[in-house]
Specification:
By secondary structure, this protein is an alpha+beta fold. The chain is about 55% helix and about 10% strand. It is built from 21 helices and eleven strands. Strand 7 (about 380-385) and strand 8 (about 390-400) form a beta hairpin. It is elongated, with a radius of gyration of 33 Å.
């Protein structure tokens, strides 16, 4: 008995209570595997001395393991020790997401910095005379350079204040949208990240314009300055457009994938069922729940199982008649009506209704190297696990169904168990939500002192897809931010371009060019930058999308089409913005543009 300090939020496991394994068994949880003949592997924490060689430790552990393992059980055993912090990078999905999110964050930061530089460079014609005056008063290139670095620093500090205020104001919304990931980051890490971002922004975003401004000659005090070299601005705008296309392609792809897996048929019905389990398995109470729910008018049927199709199954080795292990397979123990209640598809035969009868899925049959059409003719008998009395005869074949969309379909054998097991699946009539609320109240009324869980299968499935939803929200936020950044950069570029070419535009209009032709001229010039940039950004998103999609067992069909649509949408938005910004200037009286010439 005791109380321990809660673990910090940056740990992968934060239990509310810690129990010893013998205590768990005493509480009645007989479905937790233990001993040599169970297929569950439990993690063991080792406190090693400083300087311990992990490889040497693993060799010693395996030597002990081989000396104490059961003889001639046909199974293989291996122990492996590794640093506890290795778990962060253990899963390929985690490693890929770190790369993807870090890359996206760097893209946004880089584009924001370039956008600032683009706006600064675009203001050259307006600030040239001011810089010339400073130089007339003795300011050298170093002074001008320092002045613009100081200006950039001040702007970055003001942005930091706005960012902190915004984060504090919308902290509850941010925590809800991103699963409280904002609040889980330790404060020192937040400060370090902010300082690094500030330093990079000041160095990169301030150096480019400061270098250009410091080279402006003093003679610009006495004459009108026009920046003739717009290559800098075009390169920066190209990078912005490519970044927008990249993020937009990812947003479209992730959204399409999320919608697809949220609505894809799993091979069984998750929409009309609830899952019930007591916190402590007591057969008498479970039997009472089944009898209670079967008599409720708004419930169609109730079934039980040892495991659930959304949380997965424990597995055992499958043995043939000669006692040889064939392959490893998940299994389940079910009631007679379980397949019908869960909405699974029975392809051949019937559901098991007697002890020693089982159904298997299509993947199980493939593992046996048999064909579906003659499996039942062979009437195979199998042994599940090392208990030689657990003999099962296959009496039916069910269609493969999906447990989750993050793993491939596995072989499965389900056999009849007359003794009620822990998980109760309840099929409710419509309207589901209203009847689910009634069921909650009824169970609470009958078992006010018991601890139990009652959840809908749909909510469990949604929880499985929650990571995808969070990633979608992240990219939606990034897309909005980067689109605003690009819009500001595009506005500055077009404003400078129209001013730089004002004399040309006026002469063209006097020569008979229409406003539409002027708009077309500016827009077509913009498309020479936009089209290759959008294509580059979209192709880049397509090439690295497998890093994320590889974590799914299914992907949205016609994915290439979504990338094409994304690119078309980005180009359309660029053209619309360009037309809207140039139309007013194109319609002006040409004489107003020639007055200052």
């Amino acid at each position: 008995m005791g109380v321990y300090k809660s673990l910090p939020p940056n740990t992968s496991t934060r239990p509310d209570i810690v129990l010893s394994m013998p205590t768990v068994y005493k509480l009645g949880n007989n479905y937790i595997g233990h001993g040599w003949n169970d297929q569950l592997a439990w993690q063991t924490l080792l406190r090693v001395k400083k300087g311990t060689d992990i490889e040497v430790l693993n060799k010693k552990l395996n030597n002990i393991l081989q000396k104490n393992r059961p003889e001639a059980d046909g199974l293989s055993y291996e122990a492996m020790a590794r640093p506890i912090n290795y778990g962060v990078f253990e899963y390929e999905y985690t490693r890929n997401m770190i790369v993807i999110l870090l890359s996206t964050a760097l893209i946004v930061l880089f584009i924001a910095i370039l956008n600032y530089a683009l706006l600064s460079v675009s203001s050259l014609s307006k600030r040239a005379k001011m810089i010339g005056v400073h130089k007339c008063n003795g300011a050298g290139k170093g002074t001008i350079f320092s002045m613009f670095i100081a200006e950039t620093t001040l702007i970055v500090l003001m942005s930091l204040v706005v960012m902190v205020a915004t984060a504090a104001l919308f902290k509850p919304m941010i925590a809800e949208l991103y699963n409280d990931s904002f609040g889980k980051t330790p404060l020192p890490d937040k400060i370090i990240i902010a300082l690094v971002v500030m330093a990079v922004t000041i160095i990169v975003g301030g150096v480019i314009p400061a270098h250009i401004f410091s080279k402006i000659p003093v003679a610009n005090v006495f004459r009108r300055f026009r920046e003739r070299n717009s290559l800098w601005k075009r390169i920066l705008l190209f990078i912005e457009f490519a970044g927008v296309a990249f993020v937009m392609a990812w947003l479209v792809m992730i959204t399409a994938q999320y919608i697809y897996i949220s609505n894809k048929d799993r091979g069984w019905n998750i929409h009309d069922k609830a899952l019930f389990m007591f916190s402590r398995y007591e057969p008498g109470k479970v039997d009472g729940i089944i009898n209670l729910t079967r008599n409720m008018p708004y419930i169609e049927e109730t079934a039980y199982s040892a495991f659930t199709p959304v949380w997965g199954h424990v597995g055992e080795n499958i043995y043939n008649d000669e006692g040889n292990a064939m392959f490893y397979s998940p299994y389940d123990e079910i009631s007679e009506n379980y397949i019908d209640v869960m909405g699974m598809t029975l392809l051949q035969g019937r559901a098991p209704k007697n002890v020693g009868e089982a159904v298997v899925n299509q993947t199980f049959i493939k593992k046996m190297n048999l064909r579906e059409e003659n499996l039942l003719d062979k009437n195979p008998n199998l042994t599940v696990g090392t208990d030689r009395h657990n003999r099962q005869r296959i009496v039916g074949i069910i269609k493969d169904y999906q447990q989750s969309f993050n793993e491939e379909i596995k072989p499965l054998i389900m056999y009849y168990n007359p003794e009620i097991v822990p998980y109760i699946s309840i099929k409710l009539k419509e309207p589901f939500n209203a009847n689910f609320t009634k069921l909650e109240a009824e169970i609470k009324n009958h078992y006010p002192e018991s601890e139990y869980n009652l959840v809908s299968y749909k909510s469990i499935a949604d929880e499985q897809n929650s990571n995808t939803k969070i990633i979608q929200r992240i990219f939606l936020s990034v897309a909005v931010i980067i689109a605003l950044i690009a819009f500001v950069g595009l506005t500055g570029f077009l404003r400078d371009e129209m001013q730089r070419r004002s004399k040309e535009i006026a002469i063209r209009k006097i020569s008979g060019a229409s406003s539409l032709l002027i708009v077309k001229m500016i827009t077509s010039g913009m498309l020479w930058i936009a089209v290759p940039a959008v294509v580059l950004g979209t192709v880049a998103a397509f090439l690295i999308s497998d890093m994320w999609l590889d974590s799914f067992s299914v992907t949205v069909p016609y994915l290439t089409l979504y990338y094409v649509i994304s690119a078309i949408v980005v180009l359309t938005l660029i053209v619309v913005c360009a037309v809207a910004m140039t139309r007013h200037k194109a319609c002006e009286n040409p004489s107003s543009n020639l007055k200052s010439e």
